[in-house]
Amino acid sequence: STQCLRISMRSKRIYSKCGDGHVDKNEDCDCGHQQICDKFTNKDKCCDSKCMFTKGQYFCADGDCCKNCEYSVNICRPSRGECDKEEICSGFTNKCPLYDFVSPNYKICRNEEGFCYNGNCMNSDYMCKYAYKDSRVFFSSACISLISDILDPETNNSMDEATKFFF
């Protein structure tokens, strides 16, 4: 697989140059070392070895939202469940939007067995058991405010513990 060659580095860059695989301010594109670029990452031949688009009307050379050297409108991330909608490329950038489309928090999901929270369907009964620290407690309207406090990162850092109750 060539995916490992496309992983971007997260470390701080000391200097930039054409052929390093990172698009800098003065570059249209940068698919990496010329041999790697020609063989693996530049299949549509959008980018040349001088880090310029091969044709003036090209807009991109790679990315989930780049097809045939142009920005595309396609599904770039599938839905992760009932509370999360698929992400669709805008047609104006080569990057997929990041988790923009989620259902409103506390919307009922999974045939009324859970509720949406930050794009995940949470099991209400388990959340109430956790909130009250009592295995005999079940979901009720009185439990909603306590759950809300637990999930609020400004009042409590229990989100890591609470996420084990996702469906």
Automatic annotation (TrEMBL):
The keyword DNA-binding does not apply. It comes from the Eukaryota. It comes from Myxobolus squamalis (Myxosporean). The keyword Endoplasmic reticulum does not apply. Pfam families: Disintegrin. GO terms for biological process: integrin-mediated signaling pathway. Keywords: Disulfide bond, Integrin. SMART domains: DISIN. Disulfide bonds join C76-C96. Residues 15-104 form the Disintegrin domain. This is Disintegrin and metalloproteinase domain-containing protein 2 (Trinotate prediction).
